[in-house]
Amino acid sequence: MTTIASAADHSALTASRRDAGLAKSTVTIARRALLRYARTPQLIVLATIQMSLFFLIYRYMFGGAIHIAGLSYVDYLVPGFIATGVLFSGMGTAAAMAEDLDQGFIDRLRSLPIPRAAVLTARAMADTALVAWSTAFTTIVAFAVGFGLHGSAIQGMAAFGLVIVFGFAVEWLFIALGLIAGNAQAAQGMGMIVFPFAFVSSAYVPVSSMPRWLQVFANHQPLTYMVDAVRSLTLGPHAPALLGHSSPYFVTRALIWALVILAVTVPLAVAKYRRG
Amino acid sequence: MTATIEARGLTKQYGKTTALDGLDLITKPGQVTAVLGPNGAGKTTFVRMVATLLRADKGTLLVAGHDAHKNPAAVRRVIGLAGQFAAVEPAMTGRENLEMVAGLFGQSRRVAKVSAAAVLEQLGLVEAGDRLARTYSGGMRRRLDLGASLVGAPRLLLLDEPTTGLDPRSRIELWDAIRALVQSGTDVLLTTQYLDEADHLASQIVIIDHGRAVAAGTPTMLKQRIGGKVIEVHVRDHEDVETIAALLGRLGDGVAQTEEATRRVSVHIDSGDGLMTAMQSLDATGVELDDIALRQPNLDEVFLALTGQPADNDHYATAARAA
Questions:
Q1: Cα(B50)–Cα(B42) distance, integer angstroms
Q2: How far is B103 from chain A (nearest CA, A)?
Q3: CB proximity list for B157: less than 8 A, separation 6 or greater
Q4: Residue A49: is its pLDDT beyond 50?
Q5: Residue A230 and residue A82: Cα distance in Å, rounded?
Q6: Inter-chain contact A3–B118, Cβ cutoff 8 Å?
Q7: Could you report the per-residue pLDDT of A170-218, keeping only the tens digit for each?
Q8: How many of the other CB atoms lie within 10 Å of CB of B276?
Q9: Which residues pair with B259 in a beta bridge?
Q10: Alpha-carbon gap: B149 to the closest alpha carbon of chain A (Å)
Q11: Which of residues 155-184 of A touch B (CB under 8 A)?
């Protein structure tokens, strides 16, 4: 029987081994998060079936009542819905992060000879990959119910890329929230912060249709900028007429917002991670 | 040979609470050292420091010759941590969990597979190895958690209250697994609240109270210091508590402890022989008794004997939150 806990085996192992570098450790830890997702049916159902259900409800139930001049509602809705989907999946990130902290998984990782950056980077990357996956899934469903790209295919891909960038920035916010919350329930409570940003925005309805005091918030919050940026790319040549500016205007501002969010949340998350 | 752990004057404060107050502790290689103390005494804080999860405010800590504050990476290469929470991934199989941790120790995929297989066998998890960890019982998860701390072939294993919350059978299985490890030469630092656990597993026990070491020695030495056994009596009538306490105080070793609510009176005696004398004397008083028993000293009594005061568990509850 091969026992590896003896001193002789230990020196053999240490002699031949080098520490896992940033790339290897990040991939190993990220793989675990993705496996959990793939092997937990409830998580998959939530992100795909439930998300599609809500999408169809908005598109068919509300779509009939909401009129956007010169545009079918589905074309208006899809960028908004995808962007808010990113926020909602971030809630899951916060809860997962908090649970890892609570259950001692983070302690184990911190006691290992891996680079400090690996743990948080792995979480951000795994969850961004999941954002990409559910965005792709929703987009396919959208195309199936009448969504159309008015711009070029390149603009469509740029829109997708923009969602991923936004997702990455938002994930760091939720990582920080999860670390601050410390356990799954508190993290879910904190996750509620998503709702005003998701709904008081240009995602589902034009901001001009809201009461004045809500318009102030809606017009200046990051999700509106992101939604409009994605929309300006999917609408292509129609964008200036409907949104007031063409895509470079919106995309630049959206990217600036993403950078600001990262600049605030990454140091916060790292500081909170180190302090434990 | 270098001491596995050399802690001098370790101090740690959380706001107003002092978790460690100048802790000194040295462990010799090839040993199982149990750190024994009630909740909040500083055991978890100390183990977390050795695991490089925390830094002390003052003092020095050398683990296998490496400075834990200045060179934590070197310490992390030689330790394995297993705690109360069984930090394993439920959606991965036992084998996958172990291979993952082995990979994080820098082992190549091939070596990781060998390490994982060896540990599964070592801990009796071969059959369950390819099932998802979420199908495991509590005891199996703890063993898998222990396994994850072993795949890196650590020189020092850190076990933080490893059997808390386990049923008696899983507890004994885990003890057997730990004992087998010790035989193959791994040093172990174990924290526990249970004297029987320390007694069963450790060759050296360090008792800590309020963040400092108050006693250290082999289990035999410590039990000699605190007396062999305890006679515990439950009287039927409240009024008799005082009488019996006075009687047992004379027969036994030191002052008898009383607990009014349960009408319990207990006292140390040097050996089990004293039980016969005690029973005869108690019988002679004609006082009605509900129960009489001879048992091992518990942690409270150990503390009482060593520090002159009972382990103050209520006070510790708030300190434990901070730690």
A1: 12
A2: 7
A3: B79, B80, B82, B149, B150, B181, B186, B187, B188, B189
A4: yes
A5: 9
A6: yes
A7: 999 999 999 999 888 999 899 898 999 999 999 999 998 899 999 999 9
A8: 9
A9: B264
A10: 8
A11: none
